[in-house]
Fold each of these.
Amino acid sequence: MQVSVDQEACVSSGQCALTADDVFDQRDSDGVVELLDADPPQGRWRDVRDAAAHCPAMAITVRE
Ligand code: SF4
């Protein structure tokens, strides 16, 4: 799995960091997403897929 984020599209909702805090974080200054792990282990794929599906800005891309 390869994960990427679009910081320009992100609206700082924080859903992704709540769903998978080992993969996504939020920038302290404005809450914009920060990618912690672009190649998460298979055990985290389900949560990463959920985070991408529920991102209100569709700012998370997952390639498998
Ligand atoms: S869920 Fe989407 S909009 Fe919200 S912080 Fe994460 S990437 Fe940004």
Amino acid sequence: MGKHANNQTRNEFAQKLMARDKNKDQLGYHTRYALLKIRPGLWQLIFYLPVPVNCWLIQDKEGLTMIDAAQPWNAPDIIKIVKAIGIPLRKIIITHAHPDHAGAAAHLAAELGTKVFVHELDVPFMTGQGFMHQEQGFWLTRSVLGVGHKLGILTPPAVDSVEAVCDREVVGDLQIIHSPGHTPGSVSIWWDEQRALFCGDNIVYSFRSLRIGSPWFTLDLNRQRESIRKYVELKPNLLLSGHGSAFYGDVAGAIGRL
Ligand SMILES: [Zn+2]
Ligand SMILES: [Zn+2]
């Protein structure tokens, strides 16, 4: 009875999440995640716990590309969801090497043979050859990451091999934009055909407002703000962040008010 009630509460939460945005169709939801179709060839996959985090799935000629890879324990669900969609997962692009965005990459690469793309400056944090708390930057962020490292958490499981990318590089239909500050190798991803921008943790859209994302986990806030200003010239009409809902409309105007 208790379990049933709990599931019901979670399902109501999922429905509220989905109802927030009238532009998307629900594909399916679960106690741990929701899969939403945003546009043809674009899905939002939300894992709820411990904090809601997004993966974005894009269909191109070769198959699926996933932007970000959620937490390490989300890998089995991602494999199941990709099978349900019925299109092979060929590429994962990591916006930055934090464990809530890169966590399942190692498992997915090993099991599905998916290629993992990450900016060259975040490569060491993905392969276990470097640790972010040893970087220059905001003392609080470094302290939290340092404690997490000692406890064996807050570091993504190491990927055997990654494809290092740099600013302006093209991966399939997408362009990499180096947008550092949150981490040294944070990237945003521009999908020109859809005028859509994936911004990782640089901006979050929640409670109907755009905000600078995760300042307490950001190594260099000033650099992050400079990176966000670069978005304006792209004139996106869809902003897709690492946490929160999709933002439709005048992204450049909304960024100007941040
Ligand atoms: Zn982050
Ligand atoms: Zn995050």
Amino acid sequence: MAAAALDALQRALREFPAAARELSVPLDVPYLDEPPTPLHFYRDWVCPNRPCIIRNALKHWSALQKWSLPYLRATVGSTEVSVAVTPDGYADAVRGDRFVMPAERRLPLSYVLDVLEGQAQHPGVLYVQKQCSNLPTELPQLLSDLEPHVPWASEALGKMPDAVNFWLGEAAAVTSLHKDHYENLYCVVSGEKHFLLHPPSDRPFIPYELYTPATYQLTEEGTFKIVDEETMEKVPWIPLDPLAPDLTQYPCYSQAQALRCTVRAGELLYLPSLWFHHVQQSHGCIAVNFWYDMEYDLKYSYFQLLDSLTKAVVLD
Ligand SMILES: O=C(O)CCC(=O)C(=O)O
């Protein structure tokens, strides 16, 4: 590419995030005091791809009054669930030159609760987080404590959720920075979740690299080894930890601007599709989220273009 064209492209990519931010990205995630109508949800939040935290949207869920660690022990303690186990709390994250996925254990929920309450020891960090509708498939006994979908969101989006996920883990369990092609309605039932967010328009400042996929294996002695997934293709992932970014290696990230928010018990975060998110939690936080597949519309195509241009041009 001619030097002048490359220069122009680099400048455009460097200026794009601030221009997009000025037009449509809030400084903080706003609160709504009650659930929006389907029309307002679609018009004010989904269409402009803007996050918000909605209060009083879950108050008719009996889960809000009932769910606690003792309640889970009494109702589903003997049920086996899939648990992600990692040495450091990071499932699906870059470690050295690998993209490492968690070891997966099938454990009775009561055992997970014992570990959470300090009554049992297990190597590493536990997180009940299997993202394939683990609520209806693994813990169907809990379904009567909530609604199977978010009616105003289903109506606005014209579809039902693809997945309903249950999350329960230790404070050390962290979800590394990534994005999804879902409209995410994230409901905290007990405890709190801390989200660090970047709008999709920050993509030019967010590094991706290709990594050999691998999985943690837990040995008999309770140590972890990393085993390559020989048959899987390389995985594009974000190597950067937004809590301690390596700005020598990724200087551009200093120009990205994260939004931070805490979602408390009884609150619902609308996390729009393609927003980057990094998630931490209070110890024993219980949450449920609904993933609605995004519309593969022009917004999606424009993001793909931004992604391709960012990959093609090195910014520093
Ligand atoms: O709660 C978490 O740890 C992660 C949630 C998340 O990444 C998601 O819902 O897409």
